[in-house]
Amino acid sequence: MFELTWIQLFILALASFRLTHLIVYDDITWALRSPFLVVSYVTHENGTVIREIEIKGTGIRRWMGMLLSCHWCTGIWCAMLVTALYCYVPASFPLLLMLAVAGIAALIEQYLLQILG
């Protein structure tokens, strides 16, 4: 078994958060999701925009669509990947650190959008 400091755990958590968001929401990974689901945005009368998802296909294709549309589901797999990389491929730490820094930047951006409107 290995020892994990609180800062290492924090870095892994942020890396997992950012990787999950990258896979489930970011436009740059749309090619990964497009075979499995269709995403549309509907603006309601009150101005709120709702993200609607239609999952394609049946069987494994449908399962992948369900996985890729759910940040909770994808987050589990991303956490396993990040943890495995950290434990078994120590040279991956700079990549995990980069994801963690990007995760912090994303959280700061969301916070500022909430405050500044």
Automatic annotation (TrEMBL):
Show the InterPro entries listed in the entry.
Mycophage_PG1_Gp7 (IPR010773)
Q: Name one Pfam family in it.
A: DUF1360
Q: Which UniProt keywords apply?
A: Membrane, Transmembrane, Transmembrane helix
Spans through the membrane: 6-25, 63-86, 92-113
In its UniProt entry, what is this protein called?
A: DUF1360 domain-containing protein
- Which taxonomic lineage does the organism of this UniProt entry have? Bacteria, Bacillati, Bacillota, Bacilli, Bacillales
